[in-house]
Amino acid sequence: MLKYIAKRLLLMIPTLVGIALITFAVVHLAPGDPASLKAQTATEMLASEGMTREIVESTRALYGLDKPLHVQFLLWLKRIATLDFGDSYRDHRPVIAKIGEALPITLTLNILTILIIYLISIPIGAYSALRPRGWVDRASAVLFMALYSLPSFWVAMMLIVLLAGGDYLNIFPITGIISQGADALPWHGWAMNVAWHLVLPVACLTYGGFAFMSRFTRASMLDVIRQDYIRTARAKGLPEWRVAVHHALRNALIPLLTLMGTLLPALLGGSVIIEQIFSIPGMGRLGFESVLARDYPVIMAIATISAFLTLVSIFLSDIMYAVVDPRITFGKRQI
Predict the structure, then answer these.
(1) In the Cβ-directed half-sphere of 212, how many Cα atoms lie within 13 Å?
(2) Are the beta carbons of 86 and 99 closer than 8 angstroms?
(3) Which residues are CB-contacts of 51 (< 8 A; sequence separation ≥ 6)?
(4) Residues of the chain with pLDDT under 50
(5) pLDDT for the residue 264
(6) What is the rounded distance in angstroms from the CA atom of residue 77 to the CA atom of residue 253?
(7) What is d(CA 316, CA 21) in angstroms, rounded to the nearest whole number?
(8) Calculated CA dihedral for residues 71, 72, 75, 81, nearest 10 degrees
(9) Which letter does DSSP use for residue 183 in this model?
(10) Confidence (pTM)
């Protein structure tokens, strides 16, 4: 087990380098760069052609964009190794400080979303499998599939109109993650204020996962309860709840752990729209604004950190296999 963990951790290094190389190529192949944006601003200010060219050259030299691409990439790898992502081209603040402010917000948002999705979809999916074609099975299938078909930006707009001071109720705030002056509140008041702000964003991120996860749990559970060892457990006279929970559900959870490794990256990408709509200062909003401003250090840092979190989540889901199913051992596994 320890040997397998060490191999997986070492494999993360070339994987991260490969992802950094692809991201670097995509960012630099995209049309426009910080120098061209400054040149466009100078042109709008009626600057002369010579002055515009001078601004472009000085900007490229300032940001190191005049160096060959392979030199820029090697310098970027050196920064990753030392956790120094440089300064933002936009406001010249350290990138690590900007990400340090945004990352906890996005992680809080997405971890809450994952917990709620699993806490609701697994019991409903398991119950539907134990009573297939019952009213709970049929009603949950119709409801969740209807929710799954709704785009998140449309749901966000509807929630704002209905519950956040639009045309009807004014129950929840629509911007930010905390009210002004809430830092002076005691810790429980501060936590309630943050939770109050997170209700609508978490609702928008959560509903789409219900249909997929509940139906996946149902299918996995149906496959398990048809196995011979489930019939043997029932033949031994074990109570139905014990057969369902201890024998069926435990084995049905194994495929769900695979999905856990891909759910966090999917939510990180999906939170861009929600953070933008609700003005939440998280990683998604920071990345969106950085792309518009061609802020290369911030874009590259966000891509690298997102890739690292993805690899860690996949690694943890693999390790949890052994926790859920003791029959799985990694000692003889070939990588």
Answers:
(1) 13
(2) no
(3) 42
(4) 334-335
(5) 66
(6) 38
(7) 25
(8) -120
(9) G
(10) 0.77
286 Cβ neighbours under 8 A, 6+ residues apart:
98, 99, 102, 298, 302
Distance from the Cα of residue 304 to its chain's centroid: 13
Instruction: Find, among 186, 23, 201, 3, the residue nearest to 116 by Cα.
Output: 201
pLDDT score recorded for residue 254: 75
DSSP letter string over 99-160? Answer: HHHHHHHHHHHHHHHHHHHHHHHHHHHHHHHHSTTSHHHHHHHHHHHHHHTS-HHHHHHHHH
Residue with the two structure tokens 């030199």: 71
Pair 295, 35: CB distance under 8 Å: no
Q: Hey, what amino acid is at 242? A: R
Residue 334's pLDDT is 47
pLDDT (tens digit per residue) in 270-321: 678 888 888 888 888 888 888 888 888 888 888 888 888 888 888 887 777 6
Q: What are the start-end ranges of the H helices in 30-94?
A: 34-44, 49-63, 69-81
CA neighbor of 271 nearest in space, from 285, 289, 291 = 285
* CB environment 317-331: b (16+ within 10 A), e (fewer): bbebbeeeeeeeebe
Q: For residues 126 and 244, is the Cβ–Cβ distance under 8 A?
A: yes
Structure tokens at 97: 């400080």
The set of residues, in sequence order, having a beta carbon less than 8 Å from that of 95 and lying 6+ positions away, is 85, 86, 87, 88, 297, 298, 301
In the structure encoding, which two tokens stand for residue 306, read together? 């997102």
pLDDT digits (tens, 9 = 90+) for 159-179: 988 988 777 888 888 888 888
